[in-house]
Amino acid sequence: MIDVAHVSKAYLSATRESWAIGDVSFTVAKGEFVCIVGPSGCGKSTLLNMIGSFMAPSAGSIEIDRIPVVPGTIPNRLGYIFQKDTVLPWYTVGRNIGLGLKFRGYSDLQIKEKVTRLLALANLSGSEELLPHQLSGGMRQRVALLMTLACEPDVLLLDEPFGALDSNTKMTLHHELLDLWQKLGQTVVMVTHDLDEAVTLADRVIVLSAPPSRVVLDHRVDLPRPRNVFGLRDSDNFGRNVRAIWSVLGREFQAAQKVQEEPSHVA
Question: Residue-wise over 93-128: b if at least 16 C-beta within 10 A, else e?
Fold first, then answer.
């Protein structure tokens, strides 16, 4: 479904060339949920932006369904959810969710039926006339997710969508995201700084090294589905998966910290 092959990314300035991503390769199967973790600056969000066509790699290639991703041309049936929600403050919840459908030429009746169905899936029935300022942070993020799901993407890219939320709200949204994913079956690639979140949600967790990054671990999470996100973290298997990933991820955090502490020799 998604094939990332020997992708790298360099940033150029007047004085130096800085490689954020060194040589990264991995594949994601259709319907799989994959999380990407790594130290700050290793290019997690950059990698997601390249998969979404928002940024060109310096080298390597990316394909979705065997079709090359062309920078600037968003692949068909791809959805992207950013760190900050993109809900329009002057539109109601219902109009926000139906916005993409309107641009695609759906009738008002078709939009209403689909919005009603999506709101029910996300436990938001009855909120279609509310404005964004009347919603909690968690509800706004659910609306942002439904805005993307309304257009029925086959691939869903998530860039730390729950990072600004409190732990209780985050766990509730984990439950709802997994429920929606299991019903709708998208291929998901999600960037996160939260290792517990990654193990809770993912089929696989990919660990990137300190920059210039490479894949240092591709860990398959051996926790059965469906997952009870509220009780999962108490299990021995959950702790074992977290420790297995942290044994590698922790070393990369230390390596990244050493790089940051080294004095610069650039004039």
Answer: bbbbbbbbbeeeebeeeebeebbeebbebbebeebb
Q: Is 146 helix (H, G, I), strand (E, B) or coil?
A: helix
Residues 68 and 47: beta-carbon distance below 8 Å:
no
How does pLDDT run across 94-103, given as a tens digit for each residue?
999 999 888 8
Q: Give the Cα separation of 259 and 211 in Å (integer).
A: 9
Find out if CATH 3.40.50.300 is the number for domain 2-77+154-261.
yes
Q: How far is CA 150 from the centre of its chain?
A: 17
Phi-psi map region of 235: left, alpha, beta (phi>0 left; psi -120 to 50 alpha): beta
Show the tokens assigned to 17. Answer: 């060339």
Structure tokens at 232: 């999962």
Q: Closest by alpha carbon to 77, among 187, 154, 175?
A: 154
Q: What is the pTM of this model?
A: 0.88
Domain chopping of the chain, boundaries: 2-77+154-261, 86-152
Give the pair of three-digit tokens for residue 89.
């403050």
- Residues 24 and 64: their CA atoms lie apart, in Å, by 16
